[in-house]
Structure formats: structure tokens, C-alpha cells
Amino acid sequence: MATHQSEDSKDPWKYTIVVSKFVINCIEVAISKSFGVLIPVMINILSTNTKTIGLACSMPSAWMNIACPAVAYVLKTGVLTPRMIALIGAFLSSAFLIAAGFTTSIPELGLCLSLTGVGLSMGYFSSKVMLNEYFKRSYVLMAAVANLGSATGAFIAPFVIERSLEAYGYIGAMLILSAFSLHAIPASATLKKPRDRPSKPAMKDDNDDETTGSEEKLARVEDDECISKEEPKSSTGCLTNLKEWLKNCILIKEPLFTMALPCLFFTSVCLNAWVLFLVPRAEWHGIPSSKAVFVSTAGGTGGIVGRVFFIALLYFGANPIVLSCVFFMLSAVTFLADPFITTFPVMCVVSFIQGWSVFSGNLALPGYLKYSVSDENFTMAAGIYGLVSGLGGISGGFLGGLIKDATQSFTTVFVGIGFGFCFLEVNALLFLLALRRKQKKRANDL
């Protein structure tokens, strides 16, 4: 489908990298889904409103993505290895998640959860880059397998945290959530580069100095008169620099990637809003919290089943972009039907379907990244991908809470998510058409 002709690594350690990515994904979603259980308690403890707490609780997921360009830059410079970056991040995220449980104000909570997200970003992004290093050809399939960790976290964490909240209170539940995060330490320790890939030299070649020196020498000789290559800076020079920057800008070099960015943004908006407000919505309908948590568990179960089904389809050669179109449409229908979903059994069934479709649609996003950029631009594109997803995460939590406070209705929030998926459907179809056109043009050129 794409032009990436590199083969997968033969190093057997590649399967350990998949497990590590699985664990890190599990931790990230476990934290996000757990806040869905904790939000009603946090509103009372911190004396705040849904809008503000929704924004604060979206910080870990948001900053995990927003910090990706910075992590990408550090990886590209070779200052730290992926393993070292991930280990620092694992300690950082766990420490500040522990601190978040003892905060008494929204600014303190927001700061701690933001730094938790920065720590998560170091492991999340490093493991993503390592996965691409080991699986050049089958990256989309292996990313889908590793993303089963997200559905596993969504399935297990809300139930555990809800029981912990009853047994140990808010602080105890936050400490147990921090224990989830500590599992990122052994996962990070496994990240190392494949043995059968040539290591990229961090230092310049010895000939670079000679080349640089020769460029600084006289450019040409005319009539025995030396004319220096250097010229005073002028507006023409600034224009040339701007043109050069635009020429090398990844958003211009990779137009398909630019076209995919709205899809990445709104998928994150819809996913984060659904994850945060699924349990509070059930409680808003009068369902006790001890039962409402099972609505979230049903969503996590649907996510696991849907992802296994999605991986099977990918294995047999299905197009992930086409699959995303199907799942975006299914998600739109279930969310737009929210006014008719008011009883506990129906909520559980619909949550299962939504978990299947929302998580499966999210699983297709690595395909948008892989098929829209070349291998040499993958690291920086993945960083921008994370940034856009993070901004979407913040927007999802904040806008969901804002709509709830303005309308006093979670139904309006979920119908809004449905319209978001309608936009995603249109964006995905346009991306698919552009991708097919590009592939057809490349085939004709050959």
C-alpha cells in the first residue's frame, strides 16, 4: 500500500518491544479512565465545577501528546537513548501522580497532572519510535496489537479504582492508580535499538569540516580577482531563507500528513470526552456509582473485542483507513442516538458498541501516520501527531465540561460527540480519496 520497502528486524527482541508498548498504552488509558470514576468525588473535595475538573483531568493524556515534539527533538539529536528517556519519564509520571492525590486546589492538581503527562510522553513516544525501528514493514499491524493495552487499561482500571475508592478513600485510590503507573519502569528498561540495524552516527563525519571549510573559501575567480561567497544580508536573503524553510517544512513536504491532522485532532477530542464523562453521565441518569462503573467496563470490553477483530482484519490485508470510515460512522450513529439511551441495560449494550467502534477507529490512526509520511520524516511527524492529539485531548475534556455546565445535560455532550464523528467520517473519506490518487499516480509513474 505504501512505499516503505524496509523489512522488519530479525532481532527476536522485537516482540519484547511490542509487550513494552502494550504496557505503556495500558497505563496511559488506565489513568484517563480512572478519572472518569474519580471526577464526582474530586468535584466535592476540590469544590469546583465539571468544566474545570474536566480540563484538569485531561492534562495527563493531553501533555503526554503535547510533549511529543520535544521528546522527538531529543531523540533526533541523540543526547539521550530511548531507554534513558523512557525511564526518566516513568519515575517522573509516577512521582507527580502520587503528589496529585495530596493536592488541595485546582492549580496544584493541574500542575501535577500536567507533569504526569510529560513523564508519560517520554515512555509513550520512545516506545512508538522503537516499534517503528523494529517493524518497518508491519508497523500498523504491530501498533494495533500493542494498542490492545489501551483497551485492557480501560477494562481493568475503572473497576479497580472504584473498589479502591470505597475501601481506601480518594487518596488511597490515587496511590493505587500511581502503582499502575510504576509498571512503566520495567517496560521502559526493555527499550533498546535492534542489533541488525546500522546505528546512526551522532557525530559529524571528518570530511564535514573540510566541506565546510571549502564552502567558506573563495567562490570563484574572475580576471584574477577573488570574489567572496559571503554577501551582506538583505531582504532577498531573508526571503530565500523563508522559502528554504517552507520547502523543508514537513507540513508542506508531506501534504497527506497535513490532511490527516484534523482527523487526529477530532478523534482525540471525541475519545477523551467519552472516556471522561461516560461514568458521570450514567450517574446523572440516576444510576448508583457502584453500578455506573460497569458502563465503563462494558466500553472497555467492547474495546478489547473490537481491537482483536480489527487486528484480525489487518492481518488478512484490510485497509485501516477504510475500516476507520466504517467505525467513525458507527460511532456517530450511537452517539447521536443518546437521547433514547436512558436505562442501565441499554447503556451497557451501547457502551460496548461505542467501545468497539471508538477504540477501533482510534486504532486506525497509526495508519494515517505511516501511510502519509516517508521513513526519514517519521520521527518528527510522530511528534507533531502527538502534539495535535494532545491539543484534542485538552479540548475534549474542557469542551465536554463546558457544554455540561452550560446545558446541565450530558445528553447534549454525547450528541456533540456524535457530530464530531460525522466530521471525522468526512475527513477520513477525503483522506482515503487523496491517498488512492497518490498511489495511482505513483503506479503510473512506475
Overall description:
The chain is built from 19 helices and 2 strands. The chain has 446 residues and is mainly alpha-helical. It has one domain (14-194, 252-445): Growth Hormone, Chain: A, CATH 1.20.1250. Strands 1-2 form a two-stranded antiparallel ribbon. Strand 1 (220-222) and strand 2 form a beta hairpin. Helix 14 runs parallel beside helix 16. The longest helix has 36 residues, at 410-445. The protein is globular, with a radius of gyration of 24 Å. The relative contact order is 0.15. The model is unreliable at 1-5 and 201-234 (pLDDT under 50).
List keywords for this structure.
446 residues, mainly alpha, Growth Hormone, Chain: A, two-stranded antiparallel ribbon, 19 helices, 2 strands, 79% helix, globular, MFS_trans_sf
Question: Which architecture would the CATH scheme give at its second level?
Answer: Up-down Bundle
List the uncertain runs: 1-5, 201-234
End-to-end Cα distance, whole Å, is 14 Å
Total of helices: 19
Whole-number total of structural domains = 1
Q: Rg from C-alpha positions?
A: 24 Å
CATH topology: Growth Hormone, Chain: A
Q: CATH homologous superfamily?
A: MFS general substrate transporter like domains
Structural class: mainly alpha
Question: For the record, what CATH class applies?
Answer: Mainly Alpha
GO molecular function, one term: monocarboxylic acid transmembrane transporter activity
GO cellular component, one term: plasma membrane
Pfam family, one: MFS_1
Region (Disordered): 192-223
